[in-house]
Each structure stands twice: as C-alpha cells, then as structure tokens.
Specification:
By secondary structure, the chain is mainly alpha-helical. The chain is built from nine helices and no strands. Helix 5 runs antiparallel to helix 9. The chain is elongated.
C-alpha cells in the first residue's frame, strides 16, 4: 500500500476532527461514538483508530484545535490596541465570542475535561495556561507603563476576571439568554480598571 503524503494525512486528520467536532457539539460526549463519527466522516472505524487512540483523545484534539484558534485570535486582538481598559475589553470580547460561537464545545470543556484528575499537566492544561497568560501579560504591561497600581497581582486579577467572564457566559450556556458582547465587554473592562487604575 502506498504511503500517504503528509498533506494527505493532514487532510484526513482535519476531516476526522471536523466530523468529531460536529458530533460532540450535537450529541455531547457520552452519546457520541467512534462509529457515529466514522459514519459522519464517511470512513471506517479503523481509520479513526489509526489517528486517535480512543474517543477521549479525539475530544482532546477537537478542543486543542479550538484553543489554538482562540489563542491566535485573542493575541491579535489585544496586541492591536493600546491602553489597559481597551485591551481588557478586547480580551473579554474575544472570550465571550467563543462562548457565543461554540457553546456546545465550551460546555464539553467545562464538564468533561477541566474537572478531570488527569487535566493538570495535559496538553489542554498547558494550552489553557498559554491562553490565560495572555491576560497576565496585558496586566504586567500596564503595571510597567504606570496605568495600573504597582501592587496589582496579575494572576489574581486573571482568576477573578476569568471567573467573572465564565459566570456571565453561563447565562448563555445554560439559559440561552442573549449576550450583548460589545456592551458587556466595555462595562466589565471599565469595572476592572476602575478598581485597579492609579488614582
């Protein structure tokens, strides 16, 4: 049997991830099966196992691809503006947009991955840290520029901010309530800066 080119392997890998993403989003983790993903992709179960060890590995790959997109988009958003309030606003908007665009995958990450005992140290854990470290950098830059009080703890602010964003997003994820992202982001960013800005 001729060996697949790297490009062809990548195409197959992406096709399987696309099918898995749709199945996980539609059915959730428990109701999704390898056979169902294979049918959706138009391939055999065996082909999936050539790329992924099991369903859990497939879910991790789906979420890792999502995080790569989130990290890239958020980094571009915050690096393209000046000022702590405007940068926080862009960060919050980027995070809320993910919840709005991918609510099912966000639910899967929160329920099926983040609370696992094996999460810490996993590739997704390190990707999450890469993402949250973007916010730490924004705050550290503002401390250096004098926009933010020198004693501000960037990591504590990160935890409080992400907790607030997630709590707001839960109204969307659980209740399906509409979310006005620009206005919510503006108000939340202003609230944080009003609490940490130099007086």
């Amino acid at each position: 049997m001729p060996r697949l080119s790297e490009a062809r392997r990548q195409d197959r890998y992406d096709m399987l991830l696309d099918a898995a993403t749709a199945q996980f989003a539609e059915k959730g983790y428990d109701a999704t099966s390898i056979s169902g993903i294979a049918r959706a992709a138009g391939v055999s179960d065996g082909l999936i196992y050539r790329y992924f060890t099991d369903k859990r590995a497939l879910l991790s790959a789906v979420l890792e691809r999502l995080f790569e997109h989130i990290i890239d988009r958020t980094a571009r958003a915050v690096h393209g503006v000046e000022g702590i309030e405007r940068r926080l606003e862009q960060f919050i908007a980027s995070q809320l947009t993910v919840f709005k665009e991918e609510p099912d995958l966000c639910r899967l990450y929160i329920r099926e991955v983040r609370n696992l005992s094996t999460f810490r140290g996993s590739p997704l854990f390190h990707m999450t840290k890469r993402y949250t470290d973007l916010l730490v950098e924004v705050v550290e830059d503002a401390v250096k520029s004098g926009e933010v009080e020198p004693g501000t703890d960037p990591r504590m602010l990160r935890d409080v901010m992400f907790g607030g964003i997630e709590h707001i997003a839960l109204h969307l994820l659980v209740g399906g309530q509409p979310l006005e992202i620009p206005e919510t982001s503006r108000r939340l960013a202003h609230m944080f800066v009003a609490g940490i800005g130099r007086r």
